[in-house]
Specification:
Layout: E1 3-4, E2 10-15, E3 19-22, E4 27-29, E5 47-54, E6 59-65, E7 77-83, H1 96-109, E8 112-117, H2 128-142, H3 151-156, E9 157-167, H4 169-183, E10 192-198, H5 212-228, E11 257-263, H6 269-281, E12 287-293, H7 300-303, H8 308-322
Parallel strand pairs: 7-8, 7-9, 9-10, 10-11, 11-12
Antiparallel strand pairs: 1-2, 2-3, 3-4, 5-6, 6-8
Helix pairs in contact: 1-8, 2-4
GO molecular function: hydrolase activity
InterPro entries: AB_hydrolase_3 (IPR013094), AB_hydrolase_fold (IPR029058), Carboxylest/Gibb_receptor (IPR050466)
Protein name: Alpha/beta hydrolase fold-3 domain-containing protein
């Protein structure tokens, strides 16, 4: 879309109610971030604090620590490095919905959750945020070598159980972080144990089963992709379609387990369903599971966190992370 805004600044992308991008580089975001402060949650007992990962780049995170069990000493806890959604250009780890979801994951899984606040496109075009994700994983791994300064990790983390996950665009980011972990060492003997993809944002393929609302969302995401990733080849770009023919082989995924959660009415559910098939077919030596929320759309758990299917989805993820 091309239009002229105030002062003659040309609009190069306009998604009403979401984001408007100008040729000058100016960006207007219309989805308000409902900031939730870090605190100890009264219902779950999970504590949260904000930390800085890359001071110069503005990459930070909110860390969640579940309470010690009643009458017992807390053992070492798994770590989940998690990435929020938002089509690479919206959202925040500090938004109330993302905060609530991370809090529930920490409580139900008994895990330390590191919810990463990565830099957003188009100010920081793809693939910048993939570098932010890798920096977050390295920050966690550094604590295994005694080089980190966060006591919640040094005192409580089981560095033999470091997982990576995300929802929507964050699931895309988590996938690429796990792929990089298969090609490079994180350091300090830390490896990625498993991958959790919740409603992954992968494009390409047929989405003819989607309803009208789902197709409208999908069309908008396809139109937005070149704005957040200038110079892309389109929906066959391995960044957005890791199952494309020219994408790196999924056999290189750097973990031994994977869980994919999809919504039965999600416009991208076909991509989510295909991922385990392609993973198995690649020769990857690991175990993959898929769970589907019947009749639910993309990101439903953020909008209706107390509905039965949202609670079930959190339970599935928690059970998966809790296995040794």
């Amino acid at each position: 879309m091309s239009d002229t805004g105030a002062g003659g600044d040309e609009v190069i992308h306009d998604a009403p109610g979401f984001i408007r991008v100008y040729k000058s580089g100016r960006v207007e975001r219309f989805l308000r971030i409902d900031f939730a402060p870090p605190c100890t949650d009264a219902a779950t007992g999970v504590s949260a604090k904000d930390i800085t990962i890359l001071p110069g780049a503005g990459v930070s995170a909110r860390v969640y620590l579940p309470p010690a069990p009643a009458g017992g000493q807390q053992g070492k806890l798994p770590v989940l490095v998690f990435f929020h959604g938002g089509a690479f250009c919206l959202g925040s780890a500090f938004d109330a919905a993302a905060h609530g979801h991370a809090n529930q994951l920490a409580a139900r899984a008994g895990a330390i959750v590191v919810s990463v606040e990565y830099r957003l496109a188009p100010e920081h075009p793809v693939p910048a945020l993939y570098g932010d994700a890798w920096a977050a994983l390295q920050w966690v791994a550094a604590h295994a070598g005694g080089q980190g300064a966060e006591p919640w990790l040094t005192n409580h983390a089981d560095f033999g159980r470091v997982h990576v996950g995300g929802e929507s665009a964050g699931a895309n980011i988590a996938h690429h972080a796990a792929m990089r972990a298969g090609a490079e060492e994180l350091g300090h003997g830390v490896e990625v144990s498993s991958l959790v993809l919740i409603h992954p944002y992968f494009l390409g393929g047929d989405s003819s089963e989607s309803d009208e609302m789902g197709m409208a969302l999908l069309d908008e995401l396809v139109r937005l992709w070149p704005v957040v990733c200038p110079g892309t080849s389109g929906c066959d770009d391995p960044w957005i379609n890791p199952m494309a023919e020219r994408a790196p082989s999924l056999a290189g995924l750097g973990c031994k387990r994977a869980l994919v959660c999809v919504g039965g009415k999600d416009a991208m559910r076909g991509r989510g369903r295909l991922y385990p098939e392609k993973l198995i077919g690649s020769g990857w030596q690991g175990e993959v599971e898929i769970w589907e929320a019947d009749g639910q759309g993309h990101g439903f758990h953020l909008f209706r966190p107390t509905c039965a299917q949202a609670e079930a989805q959190v339970g599935v993820v928690a059970e998966f992370l809790g296995r040794r």
